[in-house]
Amino acid sequence: MSQRDVKQRIDSVKNIRKITSAMQMVAAARLRRAEQRIAALRPYAGAIRRMTRQAAAAAGSGELASTPILQQRETEETVAIMLVTGDRGLAGAFNSQIIRAGLRAAADYQAEGKTVHFYAAGRRGVSSLVFRNIDPHGRYTGFSDRPAYANAREIAEDLMSAYVDAEVDKVEILYNGYISPLTQEVRREVLLPLQRASIDEALGEQDEPETETTGVGHALVEYEPDPEVILRRLVPDYVEISVYRALLESTASEHGARMTAMRSASENAGEVIEDLTLEMNRARQAEITQEIMEVVAGAESLL
To answer: Is the pLDDT assigned to residue 203 strictly greater than 50?
Structure first.
């Protein structure tokens, strides 16, 4: 490779490093906003949790059994798998690990003789399923960078309608849970059906502890209208909040993964530039040595 070719490669890699560095800074700024949105959601989500648990306690087991979303089917012949991915790539294994986990889950269910319906949020998830000749029953794209509550409501309504209409017997959601900018973990959760146990356990984590005055299983408020009516209204809100939380965590995870990937790319570009610069210096040195040898040989021929 000539000295000119090496210099052109160095210039190209420098331009790539500028792009990756800029993408790293953009991802870092968006990550901070995503973390703020997750923190802002927690008080509202905690209130929904407490209200749902208290309404379930006040309504009693009869209403829980009669509410379709709270009912568990005797057999689970059809399972819906909701994949939460991003609209863009360049984020390391962020998208691929969700897709692989979803396909593994589907293969396990199909090995048991069950039917799997895929739903996907994010262009990467949709395109990966279509590439594998899988037609998603629900496609939701264009908002992975900044999901709104309306997006979560749309997804939740489709999933709840499919469950209530007996199109599916179980709904699972897979998304990247945000731990830190360097760490994201694949989380697989059962979204539907909602049972009394899941309300008490999963939603009661941030509730205040029981006291002697509150007792166990007794509502602390008087309901108007009846707690049964309120429970039927709160349960869809809980599903929407669960989907919205998954979208927000996935967004934060995506920005964290992209920031880490772009930082690694920038560091790798720096190493490539150093190697190419060393190669160019060696080529220049070899060229100078060759010229000196030619001058010496010419001088000797004149003697």
So the answer is: no
